[in-house]
Amino acid sequence: MVDTIPPTGADAPVDASAATDREGWLSLMEEISEDSGYFEPLGTRHWAFFHDESPTIIVTFEQLDDIRAQPGQMPRGHAVALAQGWSHLCIVSDGPSWYRDPAIYGYFDRLVDDAFFEDFDRVLFYGTGQAGYAACAYAVTAPGSTVLAISPRATQDPAHAGWDRRTPGARRLDFTSRYGYAPDMIDGCGAVFLMFDPTVSEDAMHAALFRAPHVTMLRTRYLGNRIEEALTLLDLLPKLITTAATGKLTPQVFATLWRKRRDFGPYLRGLLARTEGANHTRRAIWLCRSVTSRMNAPRFKKRLADLEARVNAGD
């Protein structure tokens, strides 16, 4: 733990939250990593931030703007690693690059040549969305590693995923060369956990392309592309990452943790909308009764009254 008041004569610890602009943040990240790792550019749009602390390492892929929006302006994965006393490697992207850059390929090639990951007892790759794709794609460089990927894409190559039209700009990127097709890159992993909303057809189709026997599907219905946000609000994300990194994550453990959604407004509202959209009025009434019996939920209380009135009126 870093003292909030340094000893007399000591320099105050460098704090990334002091950065007021992009260039200032980049400079502060260099200072922060001087004593315990490094912060180096990878081409013109990416950087590698490495904090060396212990034989367990979390590898995350995060966007610069998202990092700067975090408390303390540090990568999301860094807070988890710091709390556990673990090492952390973050590949930072300036914008939605999908981490498809020869400079990143070369960086991971160097890690392999230097046997970088062999110095760690446990390695976890983590990311969400396009970062989830990257977590799967680059996990090949650390055989035996674990992957926790939220809503990962298998590829954006139109030849393999022409049915996914959500990010047309990504189709201009190269997904056919090195580290390209994510499902092929996880073959040497120890365990791969894919978390996604099965009601989002594109995400379910991407997940289906990961067919290896060591892949475990963790389904989070009715959250769409807000899974990481929901896990953060529920204070579940750090627990999931640490559980996966220590080899303790199982479908049963996830199911126990995921029960917290029963008190999570966005999930419950999504479930109610889905239920009513399917014209399951009595099921919607049961849901509203369950919620109002456990929580102070004025919206569900009002909706319950409306639904019961509709049933009583014979609608």
Structure summarized in a few sentences:
By secondary structure, the protein is α/β, with parallel strands linked by helices.
What is the number of strand segments? 8
Helix vs. strand class: alpha/beta
Q: What is the CA-CA span between the terminal residues?
A: 62 Å
Elements, N to C (H/E): HEEEHHEHEHEHHEHEHHHHHH
Q: What is the strand content?
A: 15-25%
Q: Into which percent range does the helicity of residues fall?
A: 40-55%
Mean pLDDT: 91
Number of helices: 14
Strand order of the largest sheet: 1-2-4-3-5-6-7-8
Quaternary structure: single chain
Report the major sheet. Answer: 8 strands, mixed
Radius of gyration: 22 Å
List segments where confidence is low: pLDDT < 50 over at least 5 consecutive residues. 1-10
Question: If you had to describe this structure to a student in words, what would you say it looks like?
Answer:
With 315 residues, the chain is α/β, with parallel strands linked by helices. The chain is 41% helix and 16% strand. The protein is built from 14 helices and eight strands. Strands 1-2-4-3-5-6-7-8 form an eight-stranded mixed β-sheet, sandwiched between helices. Strand 5, helix 5 (130-138) and strand 6 form a beta-alpha-beta unit. Helix 12 (265-277) packs antiparallel against helix 13 (281-294) and helix 13 packs antiparallel against helix 14 (298-312). The longest helix has 15 residues, at 298-312. Residues 1-10 have low confidence and may be disordered.
